[in-house]
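pls design
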């Protein structure tokens, strides 16, 4: 513990001057504590302890330039992990990481595409299309080779989906081994919730699935066509997310692509035209059943130079032991990722991606929930774990590792409640718990929201696929019932349209941008309400006689059953 004490002293010397700069006028009236009938006085005391200004203090520090954007495997990210571990220690929570400490080491490989790489589309007729890195294309060699070359035919794959439960297979009768697959993000449009989830994006629509499936079938590479409305974010988000080092789990045995790439929409349109085709018509045809993959009269020629760096990053895990001698071996987990994009090289001007909202807010909430549980006079029946994970921005790598190496067996984890990117806009009147309806815990969620005076609203952007974009998905893949807690669009003093406009502005101007910074005007009362709501839910889940389950027929129910046997 001497190491933790030393870190605590160092961090106090760093953070006290920073926090002292916060204007006193930023403080808001205290938030009320709702009465939840199913909760004990100890749980109500925990909720009452939540302080929005403490959340502010954490966000202010984590988003400071000192932490250099909290990059995975970078100095700032390691400082963030030590800061979180130190807070857990100061709260008196038990360490739940490796070797009696708070840190769970995650062995990773960092891969960064170098400027000497070249990427050319070569139609059989017409001039070669030499693409500019970070302007026309972003690309990565996932195989960990430092130098590689690809000279392969291009196959138009539509969505690149094989979904037998929806009777959809873009790969049917297609020979893709050793080839480069051109495809769209997203999934076939539908208003039928039984067909690709209707308007809600399934995992089949995520870029991660596209890469994974193509690699499984032996493709050399994938070229994803970026279209803002289909990706749900602009090209600048793709560019910023893929311009620096990308991290992979070091011991991941799954197949990898030589070319994992994105291109701009207009580049894809030019390629189609050079092949005597029309991209709009190609995309429209791919949305209909019976689509057949087409080998284009074109090749990809790619010379890629990469740096490959082995390193370790850390998940940070603490617990408060449960009070029931029979149930304390089980768990409820709160999660939030602490990493962001770090410092992205080659960008003009401010290139520190501070990540205040994404996800300083989630970590601030997690720490405040942890403090409230630690101070409660009694713990719930099951043990409660607090996990701040690394490498979410790299493809959920930290939570993927945690799902494979949980602090207790997955079958004993009743629920994961995740916090990611919660806008500090004031007191919410709505809550979003997308995915909770897939679990047997949903009636408790509904009742608790009503007691909080919060209307449960669906995701206002169902096509963005948020359920598959944050760390609760890693727990779900391990069979653990999991969902994220976030605010809706309606805030006190504003109509819902105001909230929607704030969300649109954030995605357009600040999401994965250097401008996602801390500002004194931020109002953290809403984040505090979400912390209280999470305490109420987690406490009830920890006290249930039986663990939470998935609804029958859910895509994760089989995994839950397998872990229980």
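designed seq:
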């Amino acid at each position: 513990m001497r190491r933790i004490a030393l870190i605590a002293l160092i961090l106090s010397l760093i953070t006290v001057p920073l926090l002292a700069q916060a204007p006193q006028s930023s403080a808001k009236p205290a938030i009320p504590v709702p009465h939840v009938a199913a909760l004990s006085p100890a749980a109500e005391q925990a909720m009452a302890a939540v302080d929005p200004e403490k959340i502010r203090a954490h966000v202010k520090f984590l988003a400071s330039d000192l932490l250099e954007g909290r990059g995975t495997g970078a100095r700032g990210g390691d400082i963030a992990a030590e800061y979180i571990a130190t807070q857990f220690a100061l709260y008196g929570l038990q360490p739940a990481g490796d070797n009696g400490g708070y840190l769970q080491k995650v062995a990773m490989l960092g891969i960064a595409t170098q400027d000497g790489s070249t990427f050319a589309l070569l139609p059989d007729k017409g001039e070669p299309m030499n693409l500019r890195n970070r302007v026309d294309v972003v690309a990565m060699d996932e195989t960990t080779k430092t130098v590689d070359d690809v000279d392969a035919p291009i196959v138009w794959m539509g969505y690149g989906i094989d979904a037998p439960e929806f009777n959809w297979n873009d790969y049917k009768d297609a020979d893709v081994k050793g080839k480069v697959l051109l495809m769209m993000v997203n999934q076939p449009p539908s208003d039928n919730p039984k067909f690709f989830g209707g308007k809600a994006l399934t995992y089949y629509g995520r870029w991660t699935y596209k890469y994974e499936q193509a690699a499984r079938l032996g493709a050399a590479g994938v070229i994803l066509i970026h279209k803002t409305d289909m990706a749900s974010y602009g090209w600048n988000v793709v560019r910023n997310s893929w311009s620096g080092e990308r991290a992979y789990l070091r011991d991941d045995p799954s197949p990898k692509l030589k070319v994992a790439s994105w291109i701009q929409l207009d580049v894809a349109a030019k390629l189609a035209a050079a092949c005597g085709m029309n991209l709009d018509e190609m995309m429209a045809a791919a949305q209909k059943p019976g689509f057949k993959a087409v080998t284009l009269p074109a090749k990809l020629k790619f010379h890629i130079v990469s740096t490959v760096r082995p390193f370790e990053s850390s998940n940070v895990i603490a617990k408060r032991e449960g009070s029931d001698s029979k149930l304390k071996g089980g768990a409820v987990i709160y999660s939030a990722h602490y990493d962001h994009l770090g410092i992205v090289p080659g960008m003009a001007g401010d290139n520190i991606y501070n990540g205040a909202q994404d996800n300083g807010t989630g970590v601030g909430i997690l720490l405040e929930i942890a403090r409230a549980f630690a101070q409660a006079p009694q713990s719930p029946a099951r043990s409660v774990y607090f996990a701040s994970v690394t490498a979410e921005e790299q493809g959920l790598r930290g939570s993927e590792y945690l799902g494979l190496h949980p602090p207790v067996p997955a079958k004993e984890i009743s629920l994961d409640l995740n916090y990611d990117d919660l806008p500090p806009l004031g007191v919410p009147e709505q809550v979003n718990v997308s995915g909770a309806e897939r679990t047997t815990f949903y009636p408790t969620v509904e009742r608790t929201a009503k007691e909080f005076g919060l209307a449960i609203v669906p995701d206002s952007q169902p096509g963005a696929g948020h359920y598959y974009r944050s760390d609760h998905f890693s727990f779900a893949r391990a069979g653990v019932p999991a969902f994220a807690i976030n605010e809706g669009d309606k805030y006190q003093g504003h109509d819902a349209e105001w909230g929607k406009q704030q969300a649109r502005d954030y995605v357009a101007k600040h999401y994965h941008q250097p401008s996602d910074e801390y500002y004194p005007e931020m109002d953290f009362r809403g984040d505090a309400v979400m912390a209280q709501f999470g305490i109420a839910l987690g406490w009830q889940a920890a006290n249930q006689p039986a663990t939470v389950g998935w609804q029958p027929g859910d895509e994760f129910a089989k995994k839950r059953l397998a872990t229980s046997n």
